[in-house]
Design goal:
Keywords: Iron. There is one protein chain. Helices cover 17% and strands 35% of the residues. It is α+β, with helices and mostly antiparallel strands. It has one domain: Roll (SH3 type barrels), CATH 2.30.30.90. The protein has a 5-stranded antiparallel sheet. The protein is globular. The model has no long low-confidence stretch (mean pLDDT 90).
Length: 78
């Protein structure tokens, strides 16, 4: 996978919101992220992060979701 440039969802602190700028990744991983409703321009609120950073619990479009670190690293945010 290519080096990701910029701030990812994994860098967002608990209690902060961010707007999705772009999705990186390919194939099934990208499709899985999009199936959860995470697309360009969507606001994401980080609710909780497990002590070791996996999973990351977020709220997207009113739904509470859990993401793996690898998924969060593929979501570039502003």
């Amino acid at each position: 996978m290519a080096e990701i440039q910029g701030k990812t969802l994994r860098d967002v602190q608990v209690g902060e919101s961010a707007t999705v700028r772009r999705l990186s990744g390919e194939g099934a991983l990208k499709r899985h992220i999009m199936d959860m409703g995470i697309t360009k321009g969507v606001g994401v609120y980080v609710r909780k992060v497990a002590p070791l950073g996996d999973p990351i619990e977020v709220t997207v479009r009113g739904y509470e979701l859990s993401l793996r670190k690898s998924e969060a690293e593929c979501i570039l945010v502003d």
